[in-house]
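INFO batch 0412 | record 1 of 1 | parsing
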Amino acid sequence: MTHVPYRDPDDLEASQRERLIDPWREHFGYVSLFRKVLLHDPDTLAAWDRYYRGVMTDGEDISGAEKEIAFVVAAAVDDCPYCIANHGEWLVEEHGYSMAEFERLVVGEFEGFTDRERAVATVAEQLARDPSGVTGEHLRSLREVGFDDSDIVELFVAICTLLSASALMQGLDVDPGDADRDLAAYAPDGR
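INFO prediction complete | emitting tokens
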């Protein structure tokens, strides 16, 4: 059980629900556990939404799918079951990757992916494991597949955003098994 109870979105004032929950529910068909935790502080959730949309939208040069690859890899390194399951579901269901590809990303096996996907995954793995271990070779691998300095910063911000959310979810002991949808296929331990 999570250290802070999930807040029921239906308990919000109508204006808050319309702003913070209804668009999410209409788009995805559910309310994530991340949102149910942040509903304890609606102003923070609103600020997170603005920030997250800016970070996660398809960029001119970095796709949402590439960011999800980075998220899955970073979540696996950071050992966040909820983040792995939630972003694994998005990678497979929203971006069309196979379960086998998702599972390979989780265990750090990047062969069989495109050069660009491998570069993104390798950098995400290193940044999550030890940010001070990012080397010129990591950046060179990104540049060789079309990243410029702006793209590199955008990717790093996306990865660090996941790591921030991961710390929150792990610190509050959010379990993918508590979701209103079945995330067991994507959870590393089948929860």
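INFO post-check: The longest helix spans residues 149-171.
INFO record closed
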